[in-house]
Predict the 3D structure of the following.
Amino acid sequence: MKEVFLTGITTTGTPHLGNYAGAIKPAIEASRRSDTENFYFLADLHALIKSTDPVAVQQSRLEIAAAWLALGLDSDTAVFYCQSDIPEIPALTWLLTCQTSKGLMNRAHAYKAVVQENEDSGSADPDKGITMGLFSYPVLMAADILMFKAHKVPVGKDQIQHIEMARDIAQRFNHHYGEFFVLPEAVVDESASVLAGLDGRKMSKSYNNTIPLFAPEKQFRKQIMRIKTNSQEPGEPKEADGNTLFEIYRAFASKEQAEEVRLRYNEGIAWGEMKQYLFEHLNSMLSEPRERYQELIAQPDKISKVLDSGAEKAREQSSKFLRELYSAVGISAFH
Ligand code: TRP
C-alpha cells in the first residue's frame, strides 16, 4: 500500500519563502517518490477565516496555485486541487464537528492566542472578534486530511497541534462507527519547519513579515537586505543556529552547504556579506521558477484547467468515501 502525503496552503497573501520550506518543498519531494500518493490543495475555505476581502482571496488562489506549479509540482502524478471544489469536505466537517469536544478546540493555539490578545488589551469580552470559523478551524483541517486518508502531512511546526487534533477527532469517530479514518502524522523538517521572517518572528502573513518567493529580482534583494540582524561586528564569531539569515539559507541549501556557511559564521562573516550570499543563492534557485510563475500567472485559464482535473480525481475518492461515512452514521437510502 502506498503512503499518502497531503498538505494545503491557506490562500491569503502571496506565496512566500515560508510556504516553500514548510509545505511545498517536502511535498514536491514526496510526490517524486514512486511509493507515495499525493494530495496537495489550496485551502481557500480556510482563507475565509482570515480574510473578508474577496479580491485578495481570489488573487491569492491564483498566485499560490501558480507557485506550486512553477516550483515543479507535477499535476499528473499528484492530485492538485482547490478545497472549495470538493463539496464533500464541508460535509465531512459537519460529521467531525459532531465528534469534536469543545474542550479540545478551547485548547487550540490559534484560538488561544486571540483570547490572550483580548485579555492583554483589557477587553471585557475575551472572545472579541472570534468567529466560529476561527474557533472550529481545526475541524475543517481535520476533514481535509481525513477525507483522503493521509498518512503524512508536511507542515510547519506551528501546525503540529492541528494534526494531533485531527488524530483525536478521527479516533473518536472510529471508536463510535468503525475504523474509517487513518490516523495522520505531521512531517516536520526540523531544520526548515518554521522560517523566521523579516523581523525575526515566524514568517507569516499574519505578522506582515514575509519574503515573497517571486518578487522581481531587485525587490527580492531589497527584502533580503532588510532582514533584521544584531549589532555584532564583522570578524566576530556568530551563532548560526536560530539566526534568521542562516535558517533561511539552511531551508534552501543542502546539508553540506549549510555546514560550510556555519563555518563562515564561526569565522565571523559580516552580516552584509551573508545577506549578499543568501540573496545570490536564493536568486539563482528561484530565477527559473520565477519565469515559469510569471508565465502561469498570465494564463489563469490553464491553471483553472489543471485544478478542475485535480478536483475531478479527488472527488472520485471523496464522493465514494462520504457515502460510506454517511451510511455509517445512519444516513443512507431506504431500501
Ligand atoms: N492550516 C494550514 C496553515 O495555515 C493550512 C491547511 C489547511 C492545511 N488544511 C490543511 C495543512 C490540511 C495541512 C493539511 O498552514
User: Anything to note?
Assistant: The two ends are 34 Å apart (CA to CA). DSSP finds 13 helices and five strands in the chain. Residues 6-10, 43, 46, 141, 144-145, 153, 155, 159 surround tryptophan (CB under 6 Å). The mean pLDDT is 95.
